[in-house]
Design brief:
alpha+beta; 91 residues; 3 helices; Hypothetical Cytosolic Protein, Chain: A
Length: 91
């Protein structure tokens, strides 16, 4: 039996299976992107797949701490569009 990796949401701090989260990645060129596959190389941070945690992140900006890198407002705006679209597609 294969062990499933656990991850923690940077907002609500709940732990769950890696597949239950949305992964945000800081690439080597210091751009922040949404990783739908969970396999893009770079430093990652995880958010719950619900709109409540996504909206809380957009207000609290805790991703910068999780990624250990400052995130610009433009990156946050782009990320918000991607994440909210992803959340809407899953419903």
């Amino acid at each position: 039996m294969k062990k499933t990796p656990l991850r923690m949401c940077v907002i609500c701090r709940t732990k769950a299976d890696k597949r239950d989260f949305i992964r945000i990645v800081l690439n080597k060129d210091e751009t922040v992107t949404f990783d739908p596959t969970g396999k893009v190389s770079g430093r990652g941070a995880y958010l719950c797949r619900n709109e409540k945690c996504i909206m809380a992140e957009l207000k609290a900006h805790k991703l910068s701490k999780g990624l250990r890198h400052p995130i610009t407002e433009a990156d946050y705006e782009q990320l918000a569009k991607e994440l909210l679209a992803q959340c809407a597609n899953e419903v």
